Amino acid sequence: MDPVTNITLLFVDDEPLILRSLKRALKHEPYTVYTAQSGEEGLALLEQHPIDVVVSDKMMPNMSGIEFLAQVAERFPDTIRMMLTAFTEVEDLIDAINQGKVWGYMQKPFEMSNIKLTLEQAVQTKMLVAERNMLRASLQRYRSSIKSQFYRFVGDSIAMQMVYKAIEKAGPSQANVFITGPSGTGKELAADAIHRASTRKDKPLVCINCAAIPSELMESEIFGHIKGAFSGAVTNRDGAATQADGGTLFLDEIGEMDMNLQAKILRFVQSGTFQKVGSGKEEKVDVRFICATNREPHQAIADQRLREDLFYRLNVIAIDLPALHERDHDALQIAQHFLSKFSEVENKVFVGFSPAAEQLILRYDWPGNVRQLENLIHSCVVMSDGPLITEDTLQMQLKLKPSDAQALLNGQSGGTAPMRSSPPQPSLSVQQSGYAAPQQAAEIPSESQICSLAEVERIAIEKAIAACDDNVVKAASLLQVSPSTLYRKMQQWGDKNTGA
Ligand SMILES: Nc1ncnc2c1ncn2[C@@H]1O[C@H](COP(=O)(O)OP(=O)(O)OP(=O)(O)O)[C@@H](O)[C@H]1O
Description:
Keywords: ATP-binding, DNA-binding, Nucleotide-binding, Phosphoprotein, Transcription, Transcription regulation. By secondary structure, this protein is an alpha/beta fold. The protein folds into 4 domains: 3-142, Rossmann fold, CATH 3.40.50; 150-322, Rossmann fold; 325-431, Helicase, Ruva Protein, domain 3; 448-497, Arc Repressor Mutant, subunit A. Helices cover 46% and strands 14% of the residues. It has a 5-stranded parallel β-sheet with strand order 2-1-3-4-5. A 5-stranded parallel β-sheet has the order 9-12-15-8-16. The protein has a two-stranded antiparallel sheet with strand order 6-7. Helix 2 packs parallel to helix 3 and helix 20 packs across helix 21. Adenosine-5'-triphosphate (ATP) binds at residues 152-155, 181, 183-189, 252, 294, 334, 337, 370-371, 374.
């Protein structure tokens, strides 16, 4: 629709003849024309209709043109205001123009061609003002919809706004979600946010890392087992599927799962039913699935690491997390968030980053993404005395050569600055800083009490697993080894016991 056709004009003059001739002259123009014989009548019309341009005579009985337009300026500031006046009456008109109450004037006696030209200019101004107001309003709407924190995510980049929106939409639905993105970008955080945004939030979110558990034990980890199902299965045990009943099951690194087990997972996703390892009994649960991988899913399908039918069952909603270097200024916001967090954890005082350190954070490539940034800030807090984290501390903890750091600071990032090809590791890892204090030396045993180191290890592991109610992942975390190490050892003991 042509906006000019919607333009409304109001002429105010105490002489009906002038109003009639103006109306007649503009009959074929694309304007809707209103007329009024006094300021009071004009204001009443302005109350009833949205008027774009008002043209008023100056000399009128009761309310003068100047008074009338001053009231219009106050009550209808978006209306363009013009005066119709003789050349001899300019003094107070100039004041009114200077005060912004009147936009322009038309000369009396008037030439109709001049009136049309001036009106056209006034209409154009009106349209520009309307366009500016519309842009301002939509900018305001956009600004107020921007989130800099979302569940446990920090960052207000446009790329992350799209992720937040997708999570908001996906969360309350029952649809399965497939999350992709490079390592350390927050895929687990996204799964957590989806669960919290869902109607299942009061039920468990059970996370299984398919890369951390050997394939032969994964089935039992997910579906559980019955006593005697395999060597080491000393009791009946529920798996993640049962624990997640009513809630969400998050299968991280799904591309690492054995293909045969993927077939069983497909059946589980389709029917909600499964059998515990060693049991013929069918069990049914109500579980929503979220999966993640840092592989490109179609490549994983081509490489026969991911079943295509399973992928399409799970990929109802796809969420892709961008690499940290694709997120505008998020790296700095996240670094500040971690600086506050680790200052508190380490009971130290930090006020922020030096300007050059901020530049380094913004220009570095972050191949290990948010996890690398998190570990780096923790190590900086541990290794620095504060109160500022400087570029030197960052450079040292990132193990950057001074020339590389300088190149980044000079703006030669994005591949021109020589960078390490593998993710730089902080010199003091978080795992190292989290080591428990060594145990007190035990009483010295007699020679006959001494058993092999392997036996000592086995006893320690079995004790830990029993203390954790058969939860191998928790026991592994307390023993500070990966779950796969424990599973491998349990497998070896089983093989020895059965003579395999
Ligand atoms: N936007 C963010 N704001 C704050 N913390 C974040 C953000 N993204 C990730 N993190 C933190 O970074 C760490 C890594 O995140 P997460 O484990 O979710 O990544 P991931 O993509 O699942 O990694 P992987 O592919 O290795 O499994 C976590 O400690 C997480 O809390």
